[in-house]
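Render this sequence as a predicted structure.
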Amino acid sequence: MGIISEFMNDDHSYIDELWAKVLNEKSDLDLLSEYLRNFKEHLLLHMKLEDDYLFPRLNSYLGIDINSGLTAMAKRDHLIILKLLTFTEEAEKARDIKKAILTGRHLDRALKKHREREQMIQYPVSDVFIERDEWEIMLIKIYGKKLEY
């Protein structure tokens, strides 16, 4: 496994852990709100890394237009995920835990489907042409620090 796949898979696992806390909180709305905020914060950083850096680099390497191919599909996935996250947040703000859990389950399915596609093609291909130094610089730009992976 290359550096991109390793980092992104680990990051997906961390996002999954944050999301599991949201899905498993069924009674304390204040705790649910905190978990949802933490999840959203990290998810947005992850998407920024993909949308602003990884996907454009992948398209450039493959000679594919930014509005076509797998990266375009991944960006559409991001929009769907963000919309479902908005629905979940709205339910949480309305203090409707049942609705938050229901929309959260839809979001969970969208996250899993999205992750499977990325892990099969986008990350392994990126491992071929992105060097460690370049990757570390981008992680610092997005996350504000050098991350261990």
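Summary. Residues 92 and 100 are 6 Å apart (CA to CA). The two ends are 12 Å apart (CA to CA).
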